[in-house]
Amino acid sequence: MKKLPVIALLGLTALCAAPVTAQERINPHSESELYCVNIPIQKVYPYRKGYVVIYRSGANNTGTLYIPFEWFGRDVLKAQIVQIGSGKTWPCMSVFYKDGAFHSVRLYVSRYNSHQSWGSIPSNVNIDDRFEGVETLNIKY
């Protein structure tokens, strides 16, 4: 009878110690080299050369980014677009940095073009030059 509580106590101690020993086995090099910043998006305008993204910068300011379609290709993979469904989630972007320099961007946008975060650029407006030679995103925080 006295052995049962001792065995139960030893079993409980072993279960509690398992997470501690598991943490010791984690490879210290498994941490990501990327640093992520999430930024709310105010508007996204599809254009023939890419996306124009108006984002919130500070409390009352906005900034503009020009993300070329080439960045979304498998060869470059500097940008990804993730479609979010309806609900209270507002579009945003995650900007990833590696060693302090821009690495990639992920846009979380509504899958519905009727959402108020989507806009359209008039067909007579030409902003092709804004997408030429874009190598990085210069974000104003």
Tell me what the structure shows.
- By secondary structure, this protein is α+β, with helices and mostly antiparallel strands.
- The chain has a domain at 34-131.
- 16% of the residues lie in helices and 38% in strands.
- It has one helix spanning 3-24, and strands at 34-47, 50-57, 61-68, 79-84, 92-98, 101-110.
- The protein has a six-stranded mixed beta sheet with strand order 3-2-1-5-6-4, with no helix packed on it.
- The model is unreliable at 20-24 (pLDDT under 50).
CA-CA gap between termini: 67 Å
Proportion of strand residues: 35-45%
Structural class designation: alpha+beta
Please summarize the sheet with the most strands.
Answer: 6 strands, mixed
Strand segment tally: 6
Task: Provide a quick synopsis of the model.
This protein has about 140 residues and is of the alpha+beta class. The protein has one helix at about 5-25, and strands spanning about 35-45, 50-55, 60-70, 80-85, 90-100, 100-110. The longest helix has 22 residues, at about 5-25.
Outline the secondary-structure elements.
Elements: H1 3-24, E1 34-47, E2 50-57, E3 61-68, E4 79-84, E5 92-98, E6 101-110
Parallel strand pairs: 4-6
Antiparallel strand pairs: 1-2, 1-5, 2-3, 5-6
